[in-house]
Amino acid sequence: MNMWIIKKIFKYAIWWWIAAIIDLSILYFLTNLVGIYYLISSIISFIVSLMVGFVFQKYITFQNFEKKHIQQWSKFVFFQLIGLLINTIILYIWVEVFHIYYLYIALFNKIIIFIWNFSMNYKFNFK
Protein backbone atom coordinates (compact mmCIF):
# COMPACT_ATOMS: atom_id res chain seq x y z
CA MET A 1 0.00 0.00 0.00
CA ASN A 2 1.53 3.29 -1.02
CA MET A 3 1.84 6.39 1.16
CA TRP A 4 -0.81 8.31 -0.82
CA ILE A 5 -3.56 5.79 0.02
CA ILE A 6 -2.49 5.68 3.67
CA LYS A 7 -2.85 9.48 3.85
CA LYS A 8 -6.31 9.24 2.25
CA ILE A 9 -7.42 6.58 4.72
CA PHE A 10 -6.13 8.68 7.61
CA LYS A 11 -7.88 11.84 6.37
CA TYR A 12 -11.03 9.88 5.65
CA ALA A 13 -10.92 8.43 9.15
CA ILE A 14 -10.63 11.83 10.83
CA TRP A 15 -13.56 13.38 9.00
CA TRP A 16 -15.57 10.19 9.03
CA TRP A 17 -15.25 9.90 12.81
CA ILE A 18 -16.31 13.53 13.21
CA ALA A 19 -19.46 12.68 11.25
CA ALA A 20 -19.79 9.49 13.32
CA ILE A 21 -19.62 11.47 16.57
CA ILE A 22 -22.34 13.76 15.25
CA ASP A 23 -24.35 10.67 14.31
CA LEU A 24 -23.93 8.97 17.70
CA SER A 25 -24.64 12.20 19.60
CA ILE A 26 -27.88 12.76 17.75
CA LEU A 27 -28.79 9.09 18.19
CA TYR A 28 -28.25 9.31 21.94
CA PHE A 29 -30.08 12.64 22.23
CA LEU A 30 -33.13 11.50 20.26
CA THR A 31 -33.35 8.11 21.95
CA ASN A 32 -32.50 8.88 25.57
CA LEU A 33 -33.58 12.49 25.96
CA VAL A 34 -36.43 12.87 23.47
CA GLY A 35 -37.69 9.28 23.76
CA ILE A 36 -37.76 8.32 20.08
CA TYR A 37 -37.47 4.59 19.26
CA TYR A 38 -33.77 3.77 18.73
CA LEU A 39 -34.13 2.53 15.13
CA ILE A 40 -35.96 5.74 14.10
CA SER A 41 -33.33 7.81 15.95
CA SER A 42 -30.61 5.87 14.14
CA ILE A 43 -32.06 6.72 10.73
CA ILE A 44 -32.50 10.44 11.58
CA SER A 45 -28.98 10.76 12.97
CA PHE A 46 -27.60 8.92 9.96
CA ILE A 47 -29.22 11.39 7.56
CA VAL A 48 -27.76 14.40 9.37
CA SER A 49 -24.27 12.90 9.46
CA LEU A 50 -24.62 11.96 5.79
CA MET A 51 -24.80 15.60 4.76
CA VAL A 52 -21.82 16.55 6.90
CA GLY A 53 -19.81 13.57 5.68
CA PHE A 54 -20.31 14.35 1.99
CA VAL A 55 -18.84 17.84 2.30
CA PHE A 56 -15.89 16.65 4.39
CA GLN A 57 -15.05 13.70 2.15
CA LYS A 58 -15.50 15.40 -1.22
CA TYR A 59 -13.59 18.58 -0.52
CA ILE A 60 -11.17 17.76 2.27
CA THR A 61 -10.29 14.06 2.07
CA PHE A 62 -10.41 13.50 -1.67
CA GLN A 63 -9.86 17.16 -2.60
CA ASN A 64 -12.36 16.70 -5.39
CA PHE A 65 -13.59 19.98 -6.85
CA GLU A 66 -15.27 18.57 -9.93
CA LYS A 67 -18.65 20.08 -10.69
CA LYS A 68 -20.34 16.65 -10.71
CA HIS A 69 -22.22 17.44 -7.49
CA ILE A 70 -25.45 15.62 -8.30
CA GLN A 71 -23.69 12.55 -9.69
CA GLN A 72 -21.28 12.35 -6.75
CA TRP A 73 -24.01 13.09 -4.20
CA SER A 74 -26.13 10.31 -5.72
CA LYS A 75 -23.30 7.77 -5.50
CA PHE A 76 -22.40 8.94 -2.00
CA VAL A 77 -26.01 8.56 -0.84
CA PHE A 78 -26.30 5.16 -2.54
CA PHE A 79 -23.22 3.85 -0.74
CA GLN A 80 -24.42 5.38 2.52
CA LEU A 81 -27.87 3.81 2.15
CA ILE A 82 -26.31 0.40 1.77
CA GLY A 83 -24.31 1.21 4.91
CA LEU A 84 -27.53 2.28 6.65
CA LEU A 85 -29.16 -1.01 5.71
CA ILE A 86 -26.18 -2.97 7.06
CA ASN A 87 -26.19 -0.80 10.21
CA THR A 88 -29.92 -1.19 10.84
CA ILE A 89 -29.92 -4.97 10.37
CA ILE A 90 -26.92 -5.49 12.64
CA LEU A 91 -28.32 -3.04 15.22
CA TYR A 92 -31.72 -4.73 15.26
CA ILE A 93 -30.32 -8.26 15.58
CA TRP A 94 -27.85 -7.45 18.35
CA VAL A 95 -30.27 -5.30 20.35
CA GLU A 96 -33.49 -7.28 19.93
CA VAL A 97 -32.10 -10.82 19.85
CA PHE A 98 -29.02 -10.58 22.07
CA HIS A 99 -30.13 -7.61 24.23
CA ILE A 100 -26.87 -5.67 23.81
CA TYR A 101 -27.03 -1.92 24.58
CA TYR A 102 -27.76 -0.10 21.32
CA LEU A 103 -24.90 2.42 21.59
CA TYR A 104 -22.31 -0.37 21.87
CA ILE A 105 -23.55 -1.92 18.65
CA ALA A 106 -23.87 1.48 16.95
CA LEU A 107 -20.22 2.17 17.77
CA PHE A 108 -19.13 -1.27 16.55
CA ASN A 109 -21.08 -0.75 13.33
CA LYS A 110 -19.14 2.43 12.63
CA ILE A 111 -16.02 0.35 11.98
CA ILE A 112 -17.80 -1.90 9.46
CA ILE A 113 -19.45 1.04 7.73
CA PHE A 114 -16.13 2.96 7.67
CA ILE A 115 -14.48 0.19 5.64
CA TRP A 116 -17.45 -0.06 3.28
CA ASN A 117 -17.77 3.69 2.72
CA PHE A 118 -14.09 4.39 2.19
CA SER A 119 -13.74 1.54 -0.29
CA MET A 120 -16.77 2.54 -2.35
CA ASN A 121 -16.03 6.28 -2.39
CA TYR A 122 -12.35 5.74 -3.16
CA LYS A 123 -12.99 3.31 -6.00
CA PHE A 124 -16.17 4.65 -7.54
CA ASN A 125 -16.93 8.20 -6.52
CA PHE A 126 -14.12 10.65 -5.73
CA LYS A 127 -11.36 9.33 -7.99
Percentage of residues assigned to helices: over 70%
- How much of the sequence is in beta strands? under 5%
Shape: elongated
**Could you name the ranges where pLDDT drops below 50 across 5 or more consecutive residues?**
none
Can you give a write-up of this model?
The protein has one domain (3-124). The protein has helices spanning 3-34, 38-61, 69-97, 102-124. The two termini are 17 Å apart. It is mostly helical.
Provide a brief overview of the structure:
The chain is mostly helical and 127 residues long.
Notable characteristics:
mainly alpha, 127 residues, single chain, elongated, 85% helix
Q: How is this fold's topology laid out?
A:
Blueprint: H1 3-34, H2 38-61, H3 69-97, H4 102-124
Helix pairs in contact: 1-2, 1-4, 2-3, 3-4
